[in-house]
Amino acid sequence: MQSSHLPKHFFDLTHEECRILFDHNLPVWDALAQLKERIQAFPLGMIQSDVHPLSVIENRESVYIAKGVTVGPHVVIEGPVVILEGARIAPGAYLRPYSVIGQGAYVGHCTEVKHSILLSCARTPHFNYVGDSILGREVNIGSSVVCANYRLDGGIILVGKKGARIPTGLNKLGAIIGDKASIGCTTHINPGTLIAANAHIGPNETLIGEIDAHTA
């Protein structure tokens, strides 16, 4: 494992409620590998905010919705799901099992989130797919950005730069996007792509490998 693959290389977790999902001594994707177990640390089965009556919560006993959360109409939530204080879920969003939505994060219209972690104030505003991914604090992905999570051949996802790619042991892994990165509209992010904090990537790109902030 390279030190550049530790959580601290991508995120400042100091004030994140989601920090309990991470082992600071293991690669950042370990948080996804262990998510099914670690999500149990939240008070699942507790819903502290009103949910729009036209929305659907399945497996309610495994859903936690904190105070100050807004859930609009026609949202589908399939537990286990955690939505932390101040998060907003827009009409038509789809939260699939093992999704953790951090404080003040925004899941937009017709966005699908599956087995992923959004840290505080991350934004997935319009028609996004976020699969098996981690979005850092204040990350913004533009309309129709897709975080793909599965190789066509079903093989183990590799990460790192060309010529030095290493296996993760996972056959589903989307993007790891560092704090305050911004991704332009209609960009396709291939499985196992690592994007540095503060990176700014223009629209209509296809990303793969490891993207440094100064080369994005």
Describe this structure in words.
The chain is 4% helix and 29% strand. It is built from two helices and 25 strands. The mean pLDDT is 96. The two termini are 23 Å apart. The protein has 216 residues and is mainly beta. The strands form five sheets. The protein has an eight-stranded parallel beta sheet with strand order 1-4-7-10-13-16-21-24, with no helix packed on it. An eight-stranded parallel beta sheet has the order 2-5-8-11-14-19-22-25, with no helix packed on it. It has a four-stranded parallel beta sheet with strand order 3-6-9-12, with no helix packed on it. The longest helix is centred in the N-terminal third of the chain and has 4 residues, at 30-33. The chain has helices at residues 30-33, 35-38; strands at residues 56-58, 63-65, 70-71, 76-78, 81-83, 88-89, 94-95, 99-101, 106-109, 112-114, 117-118, 123-126, 129-131, 134-135, 140-141, 146-147, 158-159, 166-167, 175-177, 182-183, 188-189, 193-195, 200-201, 206-207, 210-211.
Produce the secondary structure layout.
Blueprint: H1 30-33, H2 35-38, E1 56-58, E2 63-65, E3 70-71, E4 76-78, E5 81-83, E6 88-89, E7 94-95, E8 99-101, E9 106-109, E10 112-114, E11 117-118, E12 123-126, E13 129-131, E14 134-135, E15 140-141, E16 146-147, E17 158-159, E18 166-167, E19 175-177, E20 182-183, E21 188-189, E22 193-195, E23 200-201, E24 206-207, E25 210-211
Parallel strand pairs: 1-4, 2-5, 3-6, 4-7, 5-8, 6-9, 7-10, 8-11, 9-12, 10-13, 11-14, 13-16, 14-19, 15-20, 16-21, 19-22, 20-23, 21-24, 22-25
Antiparallel strand pairs: 17-18
